[in-house]
Design goal:
It contains seven helices and no strands. It has 154 residues and is mainly alpha-helical. The longest helix is centred in the last third of the chain and has 31 residues. The protein is flat, with a radius of gyration of 27 Å.
Length: 154
């Protein structure tokens, strides 16, 4: 008789497995979002560099503007960044090795990265100089708070 009950309700087992899978998916999404985007500020790890601390302390609307500026610069760099791969590959395979040619390509890449970083720094500086005294003081307070954040033990 027990065998008949198992055969009579096989969809229950399937429904239970599907429900469990969906619950695990939901929990995974919540945990993943918490790890990716952090929780409250006190739960976020400290910034890795001065640049990221300067960025994190900015007001949300200014950070959004900086992000957009950065994306535009990254897109421009990406479009031109891999055109030198052929030159680098040729330099690496050349016999005799052309160290000066390779150095020239690397120096050109460095200049492009430097120009990108300069544009980000200039944008940040423009934002800071356009702030009122109170806004700059508030920014300084946030910067101090962000930079003194301790790492949490996992």
């Amino acid at each position: 008789m027990a065998e008949q009950k198992e055969r009579k309700w096989p969809w229950m087992r399937i429904l239970l497995i599907v429900s469990l899978g969906l619950n695990l998916l939901f929990v995974g999404l919540v945990v993943g979002a918490a790890l990716r985007f952090g929780g409250p500020d006190s739960m976020r790890p400290p910034p890795r560099s001065l640049g990221s601390a300067l960025y994190r302390a900015l007001p949300d609307d200014v950070r959004q503007e900086m992000r957009q500026h950065s994306r535009t610069g990254h897109d421009t760099r990406r479009k031109g960044g891999f055109k030198d791969v052929g030159v680098i590959v040729a330099s690496l395979r050349a016999v005799p090795f052309d160290a000066e040619g390779l150095k020239t390509v690397l120096d050109r890449q460095l200049v492009q990265r430097e120009a990108f970083h300069r544009s980000i720094q200039d944008k940040w500086f423009d934002q800071i100089t356009s702030m009122s005294d109170e806004e700059r003081a508030s920014y300084a307070d946030r910067l101090e708070k962000v930079s003194h954040r301790k790492t949490h033990k996992k």
